[in-house]
Amino acid sequence: MESRDSHDYLCAGEYLGYRLLELGVTHVFNVPGDFNLPLLDSLAKVPDLTLVNTSNELNAAYAADGFARATGGLGCCATTFLVRARQSRPAETNTLQSQSPTSENAGPWC
User: What is the Cα–Cα distance from 33 to 52, expressed in whole angstroms?
Assistant: First the structure.
């Protein structure tokens, strides 16, 4: 696992991106915001990982759920944390009830 940068280490966000790739994740649905930009910047450095911007946290969570159901793989969304992350709870509840494999990552990582 090597970063595109000249440094010889990975920050936590890049490491997360490579681990997601190993789990079969190809798309991360996200809501860009002040507090998760370091995470999104790190994920953008990971080749073969596509970031898909959405308009709010609920849409990101439902998109990850739909992607997981359509592909049979793991769906992933990245949101801001605290109050804004709670907007995705209805979709997360739905994924739990339907046993759809999804992952939500919130907040800064680097």
Answer: 14
